[in-house]
Amino acid sequence: MGRDQAFRWDVLFRTFIAALPALMTPIIIVGGMTFGWFTPTEAAIAACTWALMLGIFLYRSLSLKQFYKVTMDTIETTSGVLLIVAAASLFGWVLTTTRLTEAGAEALLQLTDNKYIILLLINVLLLVIGCFLEPIASISILVPVLMPIILKVGIHPVHFGVVMTLNLMIGLLHPPLGMVLFVLSRIAKLSIERTTMAILPWLVPLLMSLIAITLIPELTLWLPRTMGMLK
Fold it and tell me: Could you read off the pLDDT of 68-79 as tens digits, one per residue?
């Protein structure tokens, strides 16, 4: 059991030094991707390898039995996620072959030419699609269809790219079948329903940020323009 103790700088310093190896994990992930040493997937592998080395050799808190259990839990969770990815790929193939996305784009232009209304309608579409399709599949299917509409109504491609990415990231979290939601429920050993109720408060600021970024393009475009990256 932990207990309260008086604050002391030497204790803080010793604790910080002891935690440095573990604190290297986010540095490896963010730093490696920032400097281009590896991709996000490779960063995850590097972080897992580093954590494994710390658990076995430095902290010695990971026994062979625990390692086996962690491995089997990972395989079980990954298998469930891959089933969702497989179903999402099939769903994407159905959308492509039936040309439903193109028909929807044409209907969208016939409905309105106001760029803000179009962006809000696209948000709804992306939030629904993002719940069932993985981001890469969603981008591959929807960008070629939506980009002509975006350019036609005068929406900047960079603005649209940020809006689309944020939509798809939120889609991974919201029910009923967001992949991250599923992974969280497996890790926390909670039902999808209880996990959904736990993350609902966090969806509110995410959706508010999405609306702000959608309706105020300068939130996205100001920094690139200031740095001379956009005209």
Answer: 888 888 787 777
